[in-house]
Amino acid sequence: MKTIYTLILASFFLTACQNQQTDLALNLDKGETYKQVTSSKATITQSANGQDITMVMLMDASLSFLVTEIKDNVYHFDANFETITMSMQMPQGAMNFSSEKEDENDIMSSVFKAMTQKTFEVSMSKTGKIINIEDVDLVWNEAINSFDQLSAMQKGQLKAQLMKAYGAEALKGTIEMATAIYPETAVTTGDTWTINTDIESGMSAKMITEYEFVETKADYAVIKGQSTITTTDKKAYVSFNGIDMKYDLVGNMTLDLKVDQDTGWILEAHVNQNIEGDAFIKENAQMPNGLKIPMQMTNATHITN
Fold it and tell me: Pfam families given for it (predicted)?
């Protein structure tokens, strides 16, 4: 009988441990630096005039976040790019740019290098939501304007392209992919919660993600996510290199995340996106009837600290 009571008590203890609530959130220290190293491969296939055109874009960036202040459950960072690399493979050929490259004739690489020497401010909640990103667009502008050999038009075009990948709105979505993952309340293993994220990367989209607290290991927690993605304003045109375009796209995304048990900062993440739909070029002098372009996009992203 004593053995039976012992087993019953042990089972209650195990059940209590399994149902123990965990406060999944950021717990960062002032004066400490945290990093987010992102590597992504995007494949975009567009159909135009009966022909499929495929572009592969590789993007790598290392971001550093120094905690300068913690106030009212908000973290304030001095952030900066440590490295930026971009390469594109298109039917016309390949292009490669890197902040590590020493070539004054390579303007894009030189702009990347100039950007790594500048700092901007980021504010983030304990649940990982970006509250504000200050000065990053201004910093890009200063980096581009420092090259006198570029005309005003070239500077404008370059800035417009870079803002789509690394401007404040685009960065918000990129950073939040690995930080805005936490629930508002404590959770137990198996619990789920939903987070809405706005994406700005050449077009506006809404991402709705259901996260699940899968398990805890010795020094990290495992979180998984499933997302749906839809363009938010299918009638809104955005200008790109003088061409007005609008998008009607839908997609999904999966996330597998490992986060530090103590700090809540990302240790590793694997993110896979699949998006498809149509892009529309607005009627213009060259295309009086406009143009509908069916497209498919896949994006595999790996994030580490």
Answer: DUF6263
Does residue 81 form part of some domain? yes
As given in the structure block, the two tokens for residue 133 are: 């990103």
Unique residue bearing structure tokens 């971001």: 63
Range of the structural domain that residue 192 is part of: 24-304
Calculate ∠ Cα 163-241-141, nearest 5°.
35
How many domains, the chain? 1
pLDDT digits (tens, 9 = 90+) for 241-269: 678 888 899 999 999 999 999 999 999 99
Match 């010795």 to its residue by tokens.
218
User: Is residue 3 in a domain?
Assistant: no
Task: Please give the C-alpha separations between residue 239 and each of 140, 160, 167, 244, 284, in angstroms, as whole numbers.
Answer: 19, 9, 15, 4, 13
Q: What is the 3-state secondary structure (H, E, C) of 160-194?
A: HHHHHHHCHHHHHHHHHCCCCCCCCCCECCCCEEE
| Domain harbouring 141, CATH code | 2.30.230
